């Protein structure tokens, strides 16, 4: 285990802790919105790439920017919807199980965030660095990314 693995564990721990504090309902909506944002970004980033590539000559930078711009725009839009929905849910009186289930969703969110970050970093030369290739968690997350990629290709015809 190297320093990168410790950083990955810290990100997972922080995400899980946030989930425990927020609770299930808020985390479930956040996770759903995150997945939806990833899906929309995958679908529509090639369209934005065509526009951005007129102004930026580097293909890798265009890929990253087009994906991230769409991702964050969708996250912001869904976040506004989420905020309004939580006003109604706030007064429902859920117990501690709400927060426990929120921790599980927080852990899943952390894994997906790391998956997205590593997916983007895999488009750069950093992957050839020794500290990157020696990371245990990078290998595991790359396996998850391969599974997700095959899932999207099979079920969503991407």
From TrEMBL:
Keyword field contains Membrane: yes
Q: How does it sit in the membrane?
A: Multi-pass membrane protein
TM helices/strands, residue ranges: 31-52, 64-81, 101-121
Instruction: Choose one Gene Ontology CC annotation of this protein and give it.
Output: membrane
- Return any one Pfam family short name: Colicin_V
Q: Which domain of life is it from?
A: Bacteria
UniProt keyword terms in alphabetical order: Membrane, Transmembrane, Transmembrane helix
Q: Where in the cell is it found?
A: Membrane
Biological process according to GO: toxin biosynthetic process
Q: Does the keyword Translocase apply?
A: no
PANTHER family assigned: COLICIN V PRODUCTION PROTEIN (PTHR36926:SF1)
Query: What is the protein's given name?
Result: Colicin V production protein
Q: Print the organism lineage.
A: Bacteria, Pseudomonadati, Pseudomonadota, Betaproteobacteria, Candidatus Kinetoplastidibacterium
């Amino acid at each position: 285990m190297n320093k990168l693995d410790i950083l990955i564990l810290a990100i997972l721990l922080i995400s899980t802790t946030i989930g425990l504090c927020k609770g299930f309902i808020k985390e479930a909506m956040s996770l759903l919105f995150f997945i939806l944002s990833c899906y929309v970004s995958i679908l529509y980033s090639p369209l934005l790439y065509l526009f951005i590539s007129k102004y930026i000559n580097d293909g890798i930078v265009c890929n990253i920017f087009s994906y991230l711009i769409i991702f964050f725009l969708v996250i912001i839009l869904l976040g506004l919807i989420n905020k309004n929905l939580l006003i109604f849910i706030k007064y429902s009186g859920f117990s501690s199980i709400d927060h426990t289930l929120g921790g599980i969703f927080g852990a899943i969110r952390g894994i997906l965030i790391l998956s997205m970050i590593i997916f983007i970093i895999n488009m750069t030369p950093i992957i050839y660095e020794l500290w990157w290739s020696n990371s245990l968690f990078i290998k595991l997350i790359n396996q998850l990314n391969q599974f997700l990629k095959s899932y999207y290709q099979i079920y969503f015809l991407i």
